[in-house]
Every structure is written in structure tokens, then in C-alpha cells.
Amino acid sequence: MAQDGPTPAARARRARIAAASLLMAAAAVVLALRLASRSSVLVVGVYGLLLILCGGVIELSRRGRTRLGTWLLAVGLVAALVMDGFVLS
After folding, report:
1. How far apart are CA 32 and CA 34, in angstroms?
2. Exposure string for 23-59, b = 16+ CB within 10 A, e = fewer
3. Segment 3-32, tens digit of pLDDT
4. Distances in whole angstroms, Cα of residue 66 to Cα of each of 7, 13, 60, 71, 74
5. How far apart are alpha carbons 75 and 87 in whole angstroms?
6. What are the start-end ranges of the H helices in the chain?
7. Distance, CA of 53 to CA of 57 (rounded, Å)
8. What is the phi/psi pair of residue 7, to 5°?
9. How confident is the model over 60-87, as pLDDT tens digits?
10. In degrees, to the nearest 5, what angle opens at C-alpha 67 toward C-alphas 24 and 12?
11. Which residues, 6+ apart, have CB-to-CB distance to 67 below 8 Å?
């Protein structure tokens, strides 16, 4: 019996890639807003690192390492938000 559509693993990879892409777009928007408001260079660096992390997660998901990518994405997002709050306060 042939299976119709993508496998669960392929769907998981696509979901992680989509999530990382959306987070990357959101981080780019926040970075642009921070640059416009002349924020600290450290805040700009944090969001730059988040963009790099999202790219790494996309590559990990493309290669089938979705669980590792998910953990890195979650930890990176929390770390970026904590650092943004810490630096801006």
C-alpha cells in the first residue's frame, strides 16, 4: 500500500523550516526597528546572532536533525528575549 503525501518526518522538517523562517523574518523586523531607534550595539548583536541561529536551524532541519533544531530554536529565542530585556532595562 503506497502512502499518499509526505511522510511524518518530512512534514516535521517542513514545519521546523517554516517556524525558523517565520522567526527569522520577525527577528529581521525587530532588528530593523532597533536600528531605527538607535539601540545599543549589543541588542543589534543579539538579534544578528538570532538570525544566524535561525539559518542554522533551517539547515539542521533540512538535513533531518529536527529535534536538535527545535531545541536550538527554542533556547535561542528565549536567550534573545532575555538579553533584549536585560540590555534595554
Report:
1. 5
2. bbeebeebbeebeeeebeeebeebbeebbebbebbbe
3. 677 788 888 888 888 988 998 899 889 888
4. 14, 6, 7, 9, 12
5. 18
6. 8-36, 41-62, 66-88
7. 6
8. -75, 165
9. 888 888 888 889 889 988 998 888 888 7
10. 75
11. none
Query: How many residues comprise the chain?
Result: 89
Number of other residues whose CB lies within 10 A of the CB of residue 89: 5
In one letter, which amino acid is 84?
Answer: D
C-alpha cell at 2: 503506497
* Grid-cell match 538570525, residue found: 51
Q: Which residue carries 531545541 as its cell?
A: 71
